[in-house]
Specification:
Length: about 400
């Protein structure tokens, strides 16, 4: 059974074609800079495996998805004989609100619900929705499945997801913590349990999805009981360009002292803050680390704030779960940056965390145990695979 997984962003489409029966990746790639004459089409496919990058003209998401589908069945990187080999299409949908606690086959009602959540995820849901509409037109007659970033966190207890504001804001407008990166947290937590050959229900796990967007989750009995992102992906950790946790009264103060609108403040907090805002250099941790090594004080500050926030969440989640068995690092920074991992794991003796420096430094983008033999907590680096989760959810629904 072959599943096509699509992840549609504002100016990009990422895809993977997966044979879910054996878990093997058949092809993958992305189209970036959609809407420009010099869009970038990157793909990996074929036997022997080839990796290529082409400059193409792609006006919109419809043209992008058409190009992806054609690349699977035609030309030098053809991997299947025809569209009939695709059993289903899995779509990453960022926000499912309280209506969706699991994956669903997309029908008109589901599309209407996704549309209604545009206000809660204006940077994501509209593009996810467009991907569904276009692919349903191009690939009719097969199931299209929605897998929601928020679904995994629907197991959080009320004390984790309620904000202490007047209750009617929740009743009338659904203002509460939802959490995101659910497929990633689900995958790496279950993968850690499998590596340890233990039942996930027997483990207390903290997962750290550290990339340009970053979040953490506390997972007990195999369920999310708390997570750092909130009503939107702005809450929680320091990210590439997002501020994370801050005093909400600062918004009004910024508007007053700088004479700017709430929309301008929103842009600042989402697009000009985080590592970029603190360092003044870049939203990319690699650039910030390089500058810090050259004694740039703002870059050093950005790293220190980034790490301190992670350590605070590790401590609070261990407290919420009354202990910790496993800590997992994943995503771009979490998988590839040994320096940041080491900073996050220093002075954590009270939790019984001890890192093996050599193991940590050699763990670059591959599954690795990086804690020492003295550590009471098993610390892993596990590359995330959200697309595999989406494909697995498709298989469950088709079954």
């Amino acid at each position: 059974m072959k599943i096509l997984v699509l992840n549609c962003g504002s100016s990009s489409v990422k895809y993977k074609l997966i044979n879910i029966d054996d878990g093997k990746l058949i092809a993958q790639g992305s189209i970036e800079r959609i809407g420009l004459e010099d869009a970038i089409f990157k793909y990996t496919a074929g036997k022997p495996v080839t990796e290529k990058k082409e400059i193409v003209s792609v006006k919109n998401h419809e043209e992008a998805i058409k190009l992806i589908i054609c690349s699977l069945i035609e030309g030098e990187h053809k991997v299947i004989s025809g569209l009939s080999e695709i059993s289903a299409v899995g779509h990453r949908i960022v926000h499912g609100g309280e209506k969706f606690s699991k994956a669903v086959i997309i029908d008109d009602k589901v599309k209407k619900d996704i549309f209604e959540y545009f206000d809660l995820a204006p940077l994501h849901n509209p593009h996810n929705y467009k991907g569904v509409e276009v692919s349903q037109q191009l690939l009719p007659g097969i199931p299209h499945v929605a897998v929601f970033d928020t679904a995994f966190h629907q197991t959080m207890p009320p004390e984790s997801f309620f904000y202490a504001i007047p209750y009617y804001f929740y009743e009338k407008y659904g203002i509460r913590k939802y959490g995101f990166h659910g497929a990633s947290h689900y995958y790496v937590a279950n993968r850690a349990a499998a590596i340890m050959k233990k039942e996930i229900e027997d483990l207390k796990i903290i997962t750290c999805h550290l990339g340009n967007g970053a979040s953490m989750a506390a997972i007990r009995d195999g369920k999310s009981v708390d997570t750092s992102m909130g009503f939107t992906p702005l809450e929680g950790l320091v990210m590439g360009t997002r501020c994370g946790d801050m005093d909400p009264a600062i918004l009004q103060y910024m508007m007053d002292v700088d004479e700017i609108t709430i929309m301008e403040v929103n842009t600042i907090l989402n697009s000009q803050s985080g590592l970029f805002g603190l360092s003044g250099i870049s939203s990319d941790m690699r650039d910030v680390i390089k500058a810090a090594g050259e004694k740039n004080k703002r870059a050093q500050l950005a790293i220190a704030v980034f790490v301190r926030r992670i350590k605070k969440y590790i401590g609070s989640y261990a407290s919420v779960m009354n202990g910790l068995d496993v800590l997992v690092f994943t995503a771009g920074i979490g998988e590839n940056n040994a320096y940041i991992r080491e900073l996050c794991l220093t002075e954590m003796d009270y939790l019984g965390i001890a890192v093996d420096r050599q193991k940590n430094e050699s763990a670059l983008g591959k599954e690795s145990l990086i804690s020492s033999g003295k550590s009471r907590v098993s610390v892993y680096v596990i590359p995330t695979n959200e697309e595999m989760v989406i494909a697995q959810e498709c298989k469950k629904l088709l079954a």
